[in-house]
Amino acid sequence: MNREEKSALVDSLQAEFAESAVCVVTHYQGLTVAQMEALRGKVREGGARFRVTKNRLTRLALKETPFEGLTDLFTGPTAIATSSDPVAAAKACVDFAKTNDKLVVLGAAMHGKVLDAEGVSALAKMPSLDELRAKLVGLISTPAQRVASVTQAPAGQLARVLRAYADSQSEAA
């Protein structure tokens, strides 16, 4: 890798860090190519990105970013998962690590705060932004549905009473 390629890699990492709300650092030693592809697919499904990085270049890219506190974690065979959703990358990595002991989650950073492996596990248990949005929409729409059903109920009852009265009048005649 020549100097220009290294500079381009650092620039692309800095751009990725600028767009991300979270960065999860992992060790992947011993994973097969098929397992790595499965991991990448799982991370992609969650709306995150996963890439193997060069430690020295990643440390350079981390400077002056909210993830600068992760610098010490970049030793050995490391890979990062990033996403704009604070939960997506952590959830995908932790879920994969549960089924494959060769992926080790080292830590993460979110909004300038560094999390250890336990913090990443706790973050992974939280609902994602999409799940929270769905719950919020459900909470907002439920009262409107109740109001509509309550306002329609008296009209329906009145229609049934009038129908019963009309039926009783037709029987009497």
From TrEMBL:
Q: What is this protein called?
A: Large ribosomal subunit protein uL10
Q: Name one GO biological process term.
A: translation
One of the record's GO cellular component terms? large ribosomal subunit
Q: Which GO terms describe its molecular function?
A: large ribosomal subunit rRNA binding; structural constituent of ribosome
Q: Which family does it belong to?
A: Belongs to the universal ribosomal protein uL10 family.
Q: Which Pfam families match?
A: Ribosomal_L10 (PF00466)
Annotated function: Forms part of the ribosomal stalk, playing a central role in the interaction of the ribosome with GTP-bound translation factors.
Q: What PROSITE patterns has UniProt attached to this entry?
A: RIBOSOMAL_L10 (PS01109)
